[in-house]
Amino acid sequence: MLLRAMDGDELEVGAPPDPPPVPPEDVLGWHNLRYVIHRGDRRRERTILSGTSGIARPGRLLGVLGPSGSGKTSLMTVLAGKLRPAADGRRKGRGRRHATDGLVGDVTFGGEPFHEGPHPASERVPLSYIEQEPRFFSNLTVRETLTLDANLHGGDASDVDDVVRRLGLAACADTLVGGDTGGKEVRGISGGERRRLAIACETLSLRCSRGAASENAVSEKKADTIGGAGKRKAGGVILADEPTTGLDAHAADKIVEKLADTAREERCCVVAVLHQPRSAIFQKLDDLLLLASGGRVAYCGPAAEALTYFEKTDPRHRCPTHHNPAEFLVDLVAINCDAGSEVEAADSARVDAICAAWASTGASAAHAAVPEVRSNGGDSPGGDSPGAVGVSNAPGPLGQFALLAGRAWRQTRREAWVRVTQLAASAALAAAFGACNFKVGYGPKSVKRRAAVLMQSCINTSMLAICRSLNGFPRERATVSREMRRKRGGYTAGPYFFSKLLVETPVDMIFPVVFGATVGPMVGLRREGRGWFLATLALQTAASSTLGTSVGALSPSAEMALAIGPCVMVLCIMLGDETGAFAEVPDALAPLANASLIKWGFRGCLCSEFEGLKFDPLGDDRAKKDAAKTAAKTAAKTAAKTAKAAIVARAKKKMDGPCPRTGEDVLEDMGLPLRGGAARAAKAQCVVVLANAALTYLVLRFRGA
To answer: Is the Cβ–Cβ distance between 305 and 16 less than 8 Å?
Structure first.
């Protein structure tokens, strides 16, 4: 058979050689998948997949083609297990809009349910899913990204070197992946290299999950067997959703070539959704699945025989000379809805006839190699017990924690520009605070001014910390979710969260210490209490960071987190004001006020400042000026004592009550402990930190990133 390329050359393909015998346990198959969306009303339903069936064989690249709206991405979602069939015909998963989405059908591997059942085949067969837009940590290099993946899977450097060489990533191995780092775009690898990096990560996952280190480390026989002769080891499944979208023709060709090489070298089933592939890419496909509207199958079989099949079915369906075969096939099953009702009706009739012809003639032959669905209650095919295949040398929780802590430290170190900016902002803000409240003194007016400075310091520290954490965690959500969903080589919520907490919290505590060390001398805060003041601000940062992480984990997006976070902080400020300047907390909300991080931070600052403080009724600058004026106007020098008494009386009259003699008087008026209040507040702050950390962990543990 001859395939006509776009450049006019005729490429002799001929009849494809018979593929090597494939054990039935290595075949990925799906049968009669039906997926219907009910948009609030069953009268407004949309059929996404309608009786979709197909197979993917190991060592072969299956390309999925079809016009927009033919259900290609939905099919990949079903195969990946993100959308699972259920006995009651309802979707398993979250999402209110899809609560009544009907999904029925079978997805099998070796005749066993791939995702469902007590021991699904996906528990022993490595499954990798390459998203349309691969996401990675931008501050890691290509080699560091692959090394972390290999270590999490129990691999070593030889695996990384081999994959880097095979995927053509040697030139950019030490280049940052790049991307948005929270306000700054870091230049990194190109789009094609990013797609190849995604393939490299999934290749490592397959290799290490099968327990095969590299081709040079094990023989072919050992790589294909488990536990002795006659027991084959499944190669795994790789699903790629439009890996060539947004790439130039050359880069797209290389991506498909690498997918085909991966299928042959790793002996795995590779299914790729392709969008507008050129003729050279079409030649690299081993098999083809052509979908029409509604997920109807128009063809499923060897790609080299597709044009011959359609020409034999209807002579009018002959690919013209100098035409891209892929474009011809997509146009063949597309319906033009913009050319009028007559054209649309003719296209619909043609597509219906094509799908009906395949359902009656070709489907049975194409699926002859697919075994019947078996129950997986007994032994798995090939002698593997259910769930027995795993990563024997993969690190445990402590090992995952060490690896993720190393990654978090590299990210923090390479975001030094962010830390320098935060440090400069803290110093500038502290200077502004100090200038506005310079040397408040120890007079009657200094009580309110000191309390205001302490309250503003707590609010400033909390807002800076929570804004950083609100923006930081949602930015990593997509990448972390992909890594945590892995059944092999992934990690749990605990190692991820506590590694970030261990690395980032001490760094974040530097900024409030700089702020407090600058504000304290400028305002004239009590020297003996500055240690507790700085410790309180540091704990305030830790509490605010964990609170922001909790809000980010509960929020579905970064925008939602940034909208909720300030509202939570305002509520904490209202409930945490010990002076009543912002709001009077009713008795009914008193228990809720105990959860306010502002309350305990402000209380700790008040106790550290006023405990042991001595006041001077003449300490205010204004009072001193009044004393000087009064003394100058006094006619008799012998009346100086009388003038002083008059000034004291005037100062007391200006105040809302008698002049406090000590800081304990102020604490007593506020109902705060006279001794050890700062230590008690610090303990309460630690409780708040632990409570927020526990909440974040539970959210990540049960809801996922």
So the answer is: yes
- Give the integer Cα–Cα distance in Å for 143 and 495: 22
> In the beta sheet, which residues pair with residue 302?
287
Token pair in block for residue 515: 């702020």
Per-residue pLDDT, 378? 40
C-alpha span between 327 and 237 (Å, rounded): 27
| Residue-wise pLDDT tens digits, 184-213 | 677 888 888 888 898 888 888 777 766 543
In this structure, are residues 234 and 382 in contact, taking their beta carbons and an 8 Å threshold?
A: yes
What residues have CB less than 8 Å from 664, skipping those under 6 apart? 610, 611, 612, 674
Q: Report pLDDT digits (tens) over 309-360.
A: 988 888 888 888 888 899 999 989 888 776 667 778 888 888 889 888 888 8
In which band, very low, low, confident or very high, does the pLDDT at 289 lie, cut at 50, 70 and 90? Answer: very high
Joined together, the tokens standing for residue 632 give 């100058």
Q: Which DSSP string do the residues of 488-530 spell out, in sequence order?
A: SS---HHHHHHHHHHHHHHHHTHHHHHHHHHHHHHHT--GGGH
CA distance 411 to 705: 19
Q: Give the separation between CA 522 and CA 90, rounded to whole angstroms.
A: 66
**Distance (Å, rounded) from C-alpha 98 to C-alpha 40?**
9
**Contact criterion met (CB below 8 Å) for 306 and 288:** yes
Count H helices and E strands in the chain, helices first.
24, 14
Q: Do residues 522 and 552 touch, judged by C-beta distance below 8 A?
A: no
Q: Give the C-alpha distances (Å, rounded to integers) separating 411 from 5, 13, 178, 248.
A: 47, 50, 12, 31
DSSP state, residue 83: S
Alpha-carbon gap, residue 497 to 513, rounded angstroms: 24
Tell me if 316 sits within 8 A of 332, measured CB to CB: no
What is d(CA 347, CA 335) in angstroms, rounded to the nearest whole number? 5
SS3 702: helix
Q: Give residue 627's pLDDT.
A: 56
DSSP state letter for 638: G
Q: How high is the pLDDT of residue 625?
A: 59
Structure tokens at 626: 């009044």
The gap between the terminal CA atoms of the chain, to the nearest Å, is 51
pTM for the whole structure: 0.72
Amino acid at position 700, single letter: L
Q: Position 280: which residue type?
A: A
Taking the CA atoms of the chain, what radius of gyration do you get in angstroms?
35
Residue-averaged pLDDT of the chain: 77
Please tell me the distance from the alpha carbon of residue 122 to that of residue 387, in angstroms, as a whole number. Answer: 9
Tokens of 301: 């079989």
Provide the token pair at 236: 């795994």
Q: Is 62 in contact with 68 (CB distance < 8 Å)?
A: no
What's the pLDDT at 561?
A: 84
Whether 561 and 470 have beta carbons less than 8 Å apart is answered as yes
